[in-house]
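User:
Can I borrow your eye for a moment on a structure tokenisation matter? Would you put together a sequence-and-structure record for a protein of your own picking? Please set it down just below, with no commentary around it:
AI:
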Amino acid sequence: MEPRFNLFATETGAKLAKRFAGLGQAVHQSPLPKTTAELVSLRASQMNGCGFCIDMHVKEAVAAGEDELRLHLVAGWRETTVFTEAEQAALEFAEEGTRLTHEGVSDETWAKVTKHYDDEQVAALVCLVGLINAANRMAVITHQKGGSYQTGAMAQFES
């Protein structure tokens, strides 16, 4: 399957990418730990089958100092001992926010998240899950491939 379309090569796509990157930058400037944000983005991208985003978030996580073993274990995080309770809450939140049922995120998961993260971090986490799912959908729709992402490449769209 070849990429269908270069969204960023269009005027409209470039404008949207700039605004989207600005939203992502706001999340990364929040007090939510960068490695937690990358783990959450990676897990949602795995669930959505977005090779481009998986590639991006693995590389950005490594650049942020994340341990490669932990990255290899994200898909099976429940069956590991390498994630903190706070990270487990964030990963569970990412999964429920990605699967999205009529309930959204369960009360139990919400309680876990709010136990470990303050209001600013929760706000960033809510927005991050929404953003990564939107990014996954755009990349999957246009058949973007993983493997060639260069760390920091999205910075070109930040204002």
Summary: The chain has one domain: 16-149. DSSP finds seven helices and no strands in the chain. The helical segments are 11-28, 34-48, 51-63, 68-73, 85-99, 107-116, 119-141.
